[in-house]
Amino acid sequence: MSYRVGYFVGSLSSTSINRILSKALIRLSPDELEFTEIPIRDLPLYSQDYDADYPPAARALKEAIAATQAVLFVTPEYNRSIPGGLKNAIDWASRPWGENSFDHIPAAVIGASVGSIGTAVAQQSLRGVLSFCNARQMTAPEAYIHFSPEVFSEDGSVSNPATEEFLRNFMSDFREHIQRVLTVLPR
Ligand code: FNR
Predict the structure, then answer these.
(1) What span, in angstroms and rounded, lies between the C-alpha atoms of 51 and 59?
(2) Is the ipTM of this complex over 0.90?
(3) What number of helices (H) and strands (E) belong to the chain?
(4) Ligand 1 pocket, CB under 6 A
(5) pLDDT tens sequence across 77-114
(6) Ligand 1 center to residue 25 CA distance, Å?
(7) pTM, rounded to two decimals
């Protein structure tokens, strides 16, 4: 059984280490997962004033999530939280009231930083947001990735076997989580 996974990269940086991590995750994921990036770059800042008539970028966001069966968040930590651009995208997707795109969606969270705690605080913040949005999160394993350019190449290949195995297992567990959630909450 294959599953459609939409993934968010929380960084807008042209040299994003989290984008490299997303490439590694896709390389190492089970064949049954098909990935499509859900872009956040062109979204205006959310306001309730838009609720009656979403602009095209926000409609595209909601349509992209509706077309997926699960979502994966690959995010940096900014000032001990998630980047504003990612929070903005989540706010758009969660509205208008009663049309929350994340309701019951299988979700996983991961992130890389150059610092030693590997986005742990940002991920806790993101988990709180996703919890309110009623996403079905994979709560274990957790994955706090300390990024080193000696380990991760631009194309997403991973030179450290232990890191490679950890990421492969993370994605395999995510596939099982998706299957488990969709068995009771099909989309
Ligand atoms: C950071 N960085 C950072 N790192 C961290 O571990 N905890 C933090 O709270 C922050 N805060 C922070 C704020 C801002 C505004 C910036 C620009 C950066 C460093 C961050 O981990 C590093 O820049 C990563 O490279 C960001 O990920 P991307 O954009 O390369 O994917």
Answers:
(1) 11
(2) yes
(3) 5, 6
(4) 11, 13, 16-18, 76-80, 113-115
(5) 999 999 999 999 999 999 999 999 999 999 999 999 99
(6) 20
(7) 0.98
